[in-house]
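Hi team,

Filling in the usual template for the complex we talked about on Friday. All components are listed, including any nucleic acid strands or ligand strings, so the model treats them as one assembly.

SUBMITTER: L.P.
PURPOSE: interface mapping
COMPONENTS: two
RESIDUES: 229
SEQUENCES:
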Amino acid sequence: KNQVEQSPQSLIILEGKNCTLQCNYTVSPFSNLRWYKQDTGRGPVSLTIMTFSENTKSNGRYTATLDADTKQSSLHITASQLSDSASYICVVSPSSYNTDKLIFGTGTRLQVFP
Amino acid sequence: DTGVSQNPRHKITKRGQNVTFRCDPISEHNRLYWYRQTLGQGPEFLTYFQNEAQLEKSRLLSDRFSAERPKGSFSTLEIQRTEQGDSAMYLCASSPDGGTNEKLFFGSGTQLSVL
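RESULT (copied from the run log):
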C-alpha cells in the first residue's frame, strides 16, 4: 500500500534553534517528493519539489534532502523563527502526469517558542 | 490578490442541509483540484478538472457531492444532505498544467461544520 509516514507528529523548539523533520514513504513508482508548509486555518504552501535524481534542494532556511534508495526524506529548518510554527506535510507523487494521485502524509506540527 | 480564492471561509450548517462552496483559481490555470482535510490529517483528493472537464473523481466523493467548473474558470463544490462526517476543511488548488513537478497552489480553504 502506498503510504507516507512522517515523524515526529509534533515538535517544540526554541526560536533560533535548528530542527529536522522526517518522511518515509513506500510509494511505488516514484516521481517526486514535495514538502508543504501549512499554517493553521490556511492552505498548504509549497516549499520544495524533488525528483528521484535530486538529493537536496533549498528554499531559504528550508533544506530538503532525498534518498530515493532508502525512500526517506528530511526537511531541515535552520535558525527557526516564530513564523515557522506550522504543520509541515510531506507529499509523494507516483506519477509525473497525474497530480491527482499525490499521497499526503499527516504532517509534523512544529511550534517555535521565543 | 492573484492567489486561489475560496468562499466562504467558514460555513456552519445543520445536518441535512445543502451547502455550496466556490473556488476561484489563479487566472489561466487550467487544472483545478478539490481536497478534503480533517484535523490532524493530510489533504485527501476529491476531484480535479482540466479546464471544464472533470477528469477524475475519488471514491470518497459520494453521490451527495458534486463539483462543476462550467466555463473552465471558477468551480463550485456542492454537498447535498450534509452529514456530521462531512465536517472538514475543503481545499481548492490550481496549477498551470500537468507534467513533471506540477506545482499546486492552494487556497485557504472553506471550513465546514455540520451540526
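MY TAKE: The first strand of chain B starts at residue 5 and ends at 7. The mean pLDDT of chain B is 92.

Thanks, L.
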